[in-house]
Amino acid sequence: MTLIEHIRGESARLAALCTACGACVEACPMTRYAAGVEAAGPGVVAAGMRDVLRDGPGTPEALAWIGACTRSGVCTPACPEGLDAAFMLRLAQWRAKGALGEPPRIRVKEDTQYSPKVKAFARLTLTEEEQAKWL
Ligand code: SF4
Prior knowledge:
The protein has 9 helices and no strands. It is mainly alpha-helical. The chain has one domain (3-134): Orthogonal Bundle (Fumarate Reductase Iron-sulfur Protein, Chain B, domain 2). It is globular and about 45 Å long. The termini are close together. 27% of the residues are buried.
């Protein structure tokens, strides 16, 4: 399995458990800075984020929310399903930035450290054996 397959697999696994209740969106301190998010409502925005994890296009509001994420992490304890919502947002952000070879759907900053950062974060979730295999 490659790192890309791992990202895709984790995206699908978490999206299947997400009910799109919107509690993570409600808890997020960044919604006021993301165009259209407050007007769309938390459940609609969460459903759009889940759609990105399911290989879908997402929605403009969901993409705005994904792009506004500053990794505060307050979304995770808010999830009634016990999901790591912050990790889901991180996965969605990678995917929306084109990490899997798709065209970017949110603004990608010039960042020469983007790939090392993805790997550094991946190390937090992988076993030593998986790291040796994928990174
Ligand atoms: S709080 Fe959890 S279940 Fe609800 S939309 Fe967010 S990730 Fe999905």
